[in-house]
Design goal:
Length: 544
Amino acid sequence: MNNKTPPIKYFLYARKSSEAEDRQAASIDAQKDELLKIAQEQGLTIVEVLEESQSAKKPGRPIFNRMLERIYKGEANGIICWKLDRLARNPVDGGQVSWMLQQCAIAQIVTFGRTYYPTDNVLMMQVELGMANQYIRDLSVNVKRGLSKKVREGWMPSGCPIGYMSTPDRNKGFKTISVDPEKFPVVRRLFDLMLTGTYTVPQLWNISRKELNLKTVQKRNIGGKHLSKSAMYATLNNPFYYGWFEYPAGSGEWHKGAHEAMITEDEFNKVQMLMGRKGRPCLEKNLHFAFTGLMKCGSCGCSITAQAKVKRCKNGNVHHYIYYNCTKKKVDVKCPEKVIELKKLNLEIKGKLSELTISEKFKNWAIKHLHELRKTEADSDTVVLKGKHKELEEVTKNLQSLTLNFTSPKNQERTLISDEEYQNLKMGMVKRKLILEDELKVTNKQVLEWVELTEKTFDFACYAHIWFEKGDDKTKRAILSCLGSNLTIKGKKLFVNYHSFIKTMIKSREAVIKEIDSARTSKLSSHIRQNPTNCEVSSLGLRG
C-alpha cells in the first residue's frame, strides 16, 4: 500500500499594482527572479508562471480569478507569490484565498520569508490580509486628500490636455500645470481658425496633421502621435482652455483653474456655437445680432431678423455680409420688403443720430445755462424747504417735550391727559415728522436726479454718434433702443417714433441753431455778435 503524499504543484503569481507600464516596470521581473530562485532551492514544481498588471484594491482581476478556478479543477494546489498582499488587498479576494487554504484546496502558499499551511492559525493570516486591505484604504484616503488640496489651489489633478504640461522640475504630488512652449501656440492657432467660422472640425483635423504637425506628448521614448478626429472634437470642446475644469469627472463640480487660459470664455462659447450641427460651422446663424428683436416690418408688421452670408471669391478672398430682412411669417400677406445690408442699416441709424447731435461747445453752454435756470428755481424752492425744515424742528421739539412731560415723575400725580390721549398725540406727531422727512428727501433727490438726467441727456446728444461708430454690438443696440419705440423698416428706410426727450432735443436744437444763425446775420448788430445766452434754451423743458 502506497501512502506517499502526491507532490504539490504551484502557480507562480506575480503582480504589480498599476496597469501603467511606466510605474513599477521592474516589479514583476524582480518578483519572478526571486520566486524562481526560491522554487529551485526548495525543489518546488511550478506549473505555470502567471503575471498580472492590475490593482488588487477591489475584486475582479481576471488572471487571479482564473488561477483560483484552475486550482479548484486540480491543475495545481499551491501558490508562490512575493507576499500575501500580492494576492489580495480587499476582503473578498482575501477571504476566498483564506477559505481555500482552510479547506485544503490550496495546500501551501509560499512567500518570501514564510510558508502558509492549512493547519496554521487562521488569525495570523487574516491579520496580514487585513493590514494589506487597511494599507490600500489609507492610501486611497491620503491620495484623495492630496487631490482635493490640489483642486482647492486651482490645479487639475489628472493629466493636462495638449498645449499644457506638468512642471517637470517638481516632485510627484507637488507638480502644477504650465504652458507647453511648443504646442500652446499651435493649439491656439486651431482655435483662431475655428473662430473665423470658415473651417469645419475635420478640416482643422487635417490642418493639425499636415500643416501644423501637432502631436501628443512623447512617452516612454516613443514619439507622440497625431490627434485623432475625436480628440480634435474633445480639444475644441474642453473648458480647460478658458480656465475651468471639472473634478471629479462627470460630477458637475466645476473649479476655476490657476493655469494660464488659452482663450476667453466668449471665444469658447462662440466655438461651441460654431461646432453645432455635428461640428459644421454654422457661421453667424446661431449668433446674436445687434438689432434683432427691436424692429418690425413697416409693410406687414412681422419681426425683422438677420442672417449672415459668406462670399468666397475665386482669388481666395472671403467676404462676410450681414442682412436684415422681414421674417414674412404672415401667410396671407405678401410682403414686398427686401433685405437691407447691415452697412446700409448703420447709415440709417447714423442719420437719425445726426438729427439730434449737438457740438460739445453747445452742450457745455446749454448745461451751464440750465444750471443757472435751476439756480433760479432753487432760490424759490429754498423758501419752501426752509419752511419744512422749521416745521420739522418744531414737531421734533414738541414730540420730545410731550414725552418728557408725560413720563416725568413730578407730573405722575397731576397728569392732565390719559394714556390713550398721550398715545394719539404722540402718534400724530411721529407721523407728521416722518412725512416731513420723506418730503425733504424726495425734494433733494428730485433736484439731484433732474441735474443728472439733464447732463446725461446732453451727453447722449453730443456723443451718441461717436459711441455708435466705435461701440460693440451691445452698445449699438442700446443706442438704437434709446432713440425711441415702434422701430420699423420700410423701403430700406428706418423709421423711429422718438422718445419725448429726443423729440424735445431735436426741436429745441433746430430752434437754437436757427436763433444763433439769425443772431449772426442780424443787420442791427452786424459788427457785434449777439450773446448766445440770450437764446431761448429754456424751451428744452427737459425737467418735464
